[in-house]
UniProtKB/TrEMBL annotation:
Record field: transmembrane: none
This protein's name: Gamma carbonic anhydrase family protein
Gene3D superfamilies assigned to the protein according to its UniProt record, in alphabetical order: Hexapeptide repeat proteins
Domain of life: Bacteria
Organism name: Microbacterium memoriense
InterPro entries, per database record: Hexapep, Transf_Hexapept/Carb_Anhydrase, Trimer_LpxA-like_sf
Pfam families: Hexapep
Length: 199
């Protein structure tokens, strides 16, 4: 299913294949030879999403851009089932395994492997050929790749990256942070009320 969102319609190369149950919404460009499988969602929430040629987005994966964080996937990228990429840049020939999470402002270099259920935190920069092991977390610039049992070290690095400030423009110490965050984000997402089918 394709949707016009905020006046922009998806642009899909005629050689790309999009499953009938995938959702493509807004300012999305899908290159030649791409395969978008069942249940995948590619949505441009005010910023563009681009997929270069021969990229595969598997079942129930999510690719999302925002007004401040476009999403770009290079050529020959494989996005595994239930993986998500939010407002990040992924270079050519990258493997994002099942369940991986890549957050806003992250930059992943060529030929990186982000293995099953691994996380690349916001504003994290991975140089080419980096491997993030199964379930591990990459955080920072330059990136540190840490096992999940090192939570205190991860949090110390992650806190400095300021997720609520960077993504939502809100101070982490705001007393009613989640009220303001959900009100602000909900208002932005409500713009989908005016979407229309484009296919």
């Amino acid at each position: 299913m394709q949707f016009e969102h905020l006046g922009a319609q998806p642009r899909i190369h005629p050689d790309a294949v999009v499953a009938p149950t995938a959702v493509i919404s807004g300012d999305v460009t899908i290159g030649a030879g791409c395969q978008i499988l069942h249940g995948a969602v590619i949505t441009a929430e005010g910023g563009p999403v681009t997929l270069a040629e021969n990229t595969i987005v598997m079942e129930n994966a999510l690719i999302r851009a925002s007004a401040t964080h476009p999403a770009h996937l290079g050529a020959h990228v494989l996005v595994g089932p239930m993986a998500s990429v939010s407002g990040a840049s992924v270079a050519d020939e990258v493997f994002l395994a099942t369940g991986t999470r890549v957050f806003n402002g992250a930059r992943i270099g060529e030929r990186c492997e982000i293995r099953i259920n691994a996380v690349v935190h916001l504003r994290t920069v991975l140089p080419p050929d980096t491997v993030v092991p199964i379930g591990w977390i990459a955080v920072g610039d330059p990136a540190q790749v840490l096992s999940p049992d090192r939570h205190e070290e991860i949090w110390a690095l992650q806190k400095e990256l300021d997720f609520p400030g960077y993504v939502f423009g809100l101070d982490r110490d705001t007393p009613d942070l989640m009220v303001q965050l959900t009100d602000r984000y909900g208002a932005a997402l409500a713009r989908h009320a005016h979407d229309r089918r484009a296919d």
